[in-house]
Design brief:
single chain; 6-stranded mixed β-sheet; two-stranded antiparallel ribbon; alpha+beta; globular; 301 residues; 44% helix
Length: 301
């Protein structure tokens, strides 16, 4: 992916230069992650089915002692990673500002927080095990870049974790764009609608709505890819292939079969490998909001 020399977003908060103290959680669950907050991510390390919604209402305190390191100087690799993330987020901002404007709406950018290990959110402590996630109440995306090494080592995705020199990594861009897709859903009211619907349904039926929501976020990531190509001519021949392979690698069926040797469709919350790669590809080819009605296509009204 060709990305250097472009506009960089000012909406990235780099908290990797913070030292973490002891995490205090008033529950016997251990280092469980977010208190009283629904978060939406690519998948979570706590549930190998790929749980989309993580809501833990814990009693007692949930605090993280964080100390910022004075005069923190990122390494050359860390600076390259930051430059890349800021460029990708700027690309999503340009994409969604254009689309919202064309539909007589105003796009409000999200903030992306880079962290290492654990981070204090507005509603509690999040750890890197959850993977990248979006917090609707804060309108923030949280990313620990160590996730991409896991994506490569455990799930076989073609991820270049150094993000150095002239070589970006479109798999990283896909993941960020997926989380931005959840932000778009939040702005459009889709997250609230799905949450309200899930509150009235048995778990298995609620999971179907979660699948539709996650596939739509994959579609929205594809829209971003469409505009990356159209606006900047930045995508190279293998970028889309790498992204579709990554989407397939973290399908519910693939993750469950790897973990348990079999898959249980009733517990799917993100969609199968085929569905995830298909909807990303659709977004890339179509490039419009109208083409992303995953709910109707899955028979949900």
């Amino acid at each position: 992916m060709k990305w250097q020399g472009r506009r960089q977003s000012g909406n990235v908060a780099d908290q990797r230069g913070s030292s973490k103290g002891k995490i205090a959680i008033g529950s016997g669950i251990g280092s469980i992650v977010v208190v009283g907050l629904i978060v939406f991510g690519l998948f979570t390390g706590y549930d190998t089915s790929g749980l989309a919604n993580l809501a833990q209402n814990l009693t007692g305190s949930s605090t993280l002692s964080t100390t910022t390191v004075d005069n923190y100087e990122p390494t050359e690799q860390e600076q390259a990673q930051l430059d890349f993330v800021e460029t990708i987020l700027a690309g999503t901002e340009d994409t969604w500002t254009k689309i919202f404007t064309e539909n007589n709406m105003t796009y409000r950018p999200t903030t992306l927080v880079l962290f290492s290990g654990s981070v204090q959110t507005a509603s509690g402590v999040a750890t890197s095990e959850i993977g990248p996630f979006y917090s609707p109440s804060e309108e923030k995306i949280y990313v620990d870049l160590s996730f991409f090494q896991e994506l490569r080592d455990d799930y076989g995705a073609r991820v270049k974790t150094d993000i150095a020199g002239d070589s970006g990594d479109f798999v990283v861009a896909y993941v960020i764009a997926h989380e931005v897709g959840h932000h778009v859903q939040n702005l459009l009211g889709e997250l609230d609608e799905v949450s309200q619907m899930q509150n009235t349904l048995p778990e298995a039926q609620g999971n179907e709505w979660s699948v539709a929501l996650e596939l739509q976020a994959d579609y929205y990531a594809g829209i971003y890819a469409h505009y990356e190509s159209e606006l900047y001519g930045s995508l190279e021949e293998d970028d889309i292939t790498a992204a579709t392979e990554a989407a397939a690698a973290i399908g519910d069926d693939a993750i469950q079969e790897q973990a348990y040797g079999q898959a249980n469709p009733d517990t799917f919350t993100h969609g199968t490998s085929d569905q995830r790669s298909e909807w990303f590809t659709r977004g890339y080819k179509d490039g419009t909001l109208a083409g992303g009605d995953t709910f109707s296509e899955l028979g949900l009204e």
